[in-house]
Task: inverse folding
């Protein structure tokens, strides 16, 4: 059953204007996020995953970065048409984001209690004992032991896993409807990573939270995501349910990413690597961006970008190798 969308991104384009040319970091991205759903954004570094998320909350680095087109529909209204004052009320309260590195997400000069309290002071106007009780509640929610003690301590007194959970407590403090997690487990070891992902899923289950998880780790995708969007050179090249994508990767890029994963129980002298390098986003031509690296590329691939087609229910891709119902974006 298709989930009701809480967020609709339509033909989003975010460019960076530099002295060396225009970088098309996000170039025509479209997807929906359902209520209580987790969507994974995967792909190589520099493919536009993080910038597409920063575009949603309108925090693209200025003045070089500019959202040049598209729609981001949240609650029936386009976020791109809202004023900065209106966006300030939405960020943190309705849409929150966990950044990549917990070591730099927390201010070393302020206590944990002060930092978890800040969004509650801004968005819910809490103060006094009510504020302190809410901070204790959030630290308990993210499994921080002895919250009364930890509230008075500083980030350097915490482990990496605790810092990441505290960041989670900060962004969840106002009970947002959407959580964007940009490489949320990058600096964590495997055990702490699994604990943090399990914690996010537990919170999601109890609050009907919708999540976008940005990652290059298909292990995280398998554990946490309901659907997956594969990005390459600023575009989504394939999107499907997680099980469907793992069982039937149709785009040559997706298949190559899957092939590069180590196989449990199999001895391999050398891991598979995709030939070549990602394209320069300043000099993209009219053809498929993956064509120079694709072992199955045809003449049309180098001349014309393929339309997005649906080959199964909810499984879409842009590739001349597969035919299906052409979708109008």
Result:
């Amino acid at each position: 059953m298709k989930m009701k969308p809480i967020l609709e991104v339509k033909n989003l384009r975010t460019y960076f204007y530099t002295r060396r040319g225009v970088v098309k970091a996000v170039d025509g991205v479209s997807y929906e996020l359902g209520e209580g759903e987790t969507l994974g954004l995967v792909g190589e570094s520099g493919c536009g995953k993080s910038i597409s998320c920063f575009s949603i909350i309108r925090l693209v680095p200025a003045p070089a970065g500019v959202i040049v087109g598209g729609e981001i529909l949240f609650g029936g209204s386009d976020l791109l048409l809202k004023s900065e004052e209106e966006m300030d009320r939405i960020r943190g309260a309705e849409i929150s984001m966990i950044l990549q590195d917990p070591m730099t997400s927390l201010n070393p000069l302020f206590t944990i209690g002060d930092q978890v309290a800040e969004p509650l002071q801004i968005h819910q106007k809490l103060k006094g004992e009510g504020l302190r009780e809410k901070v204790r509640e959030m630290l308990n929610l993210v499994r921080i032991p002895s919250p009364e003690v930890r509230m008075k301590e500083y980030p350097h007194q915490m482990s990496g896993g605790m810092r990441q959970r505290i960041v989670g407590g900060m962004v969840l403090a106002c009970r947002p409807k959407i959580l964007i997690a940009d490489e949320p487990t990058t600096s964590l070891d495997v055990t702490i990573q699994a604990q943090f992902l399990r914690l996010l899923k537990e919170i999601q289950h109890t609050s009907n939270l919708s999540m976008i998880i940005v990652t290059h780790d298909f292990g995280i995708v398998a554990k946490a995501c309901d659907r997956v969007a594969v990005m390459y050179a600023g575009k989504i090249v394939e999107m499907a349910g997680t099980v469907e994508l793992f069982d039937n990767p149709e785009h040559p890029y997706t298949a190559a990413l899957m092939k590069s994963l180590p196989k449990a129980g199999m001895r391999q002298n050398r891991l598979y690597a995709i030939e070549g390098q990602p394209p320069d986003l300043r000099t993209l031509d009219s053809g498929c961006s993956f064509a120079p690296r694709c072992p199955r590329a045809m003449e049309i691939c180098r001349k014309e970008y393929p339309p997005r087609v649906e080959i199964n229910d909810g499984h879409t891709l842009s590739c001349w190798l597969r035919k299906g119902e052409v979708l109008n974006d």
In short: The longest strand covers residues 5-18. Residues 190-207 form the longest helix (18 residues).
